[in-house]
């Protein structure tokens, strides 16, 4: 019971949620959010903009093709770390995936 109450308090306090898998939407020339996932999780990016976008890690680990509106790209994160990425077409679009 105490563990449940602690978990509920952390969620209510605004602590980032940990998820096995996550989806990041791309809209208004922005990645919707930074995400935190556990090792082995898959992150999927879905383009909801009328313009093409890419998802490209700064360390070269992953790079999507140009995603048209409605297209998705997924990558499975195996190792803990902080992964920075951008849209290579619009480099001011940037976000992170944290794996822990």
Walkthrough of the structure:
Helix content is 11%, strand content 40%. With 100 residues, the protein is mainly beta. It has one domain (20-99): Cupredoxins -  blue copper proteins (Immunoglobulin-like). A five-stranded mixed sheet has the order 1-4-9-8-6, with no helix packed on it. The protein has a four-stranded mixed sheet with strand order 3-2-5-7, with no helix packed on it. The longest helix is centred in the N-terminal third of the chain and has 11 residues, at 2-12. The model is unreliable at 2-15 (pLDDT under 50).
Tally of helical runs = 1
Counting DSSP E segments of at least 2 residues, the number of strands comes to: 9
Kindly state the percentage of residues in helix: 10-25%
Total domain modules? 1
SSE topology string: HEEEEEEEEE
Distance between the termini: 25 Å
- The chain-level structural class is mainly beta
Q: What share of the residues does DSSP label as strand, in percent?
A: 35-45%
CATH superfamily caption: Cupredoxins -  blue copper proteins
Radius of gyration: 15 Å
CATH class, anyone?
Mainly Beta
Set out the fold topology.
Layout: H1 2-12, E1 18-19, E2 22-27, E3 30-31, E4 35-37, E5 41-47, E6 56-57, E7 72-77, E8 81-86, E9 94-99
Parallel strand pairs: 1-4, 2-5, 4-9
Antiparallel strand pairs: 2-3, 5-7, 6-8, 8-9
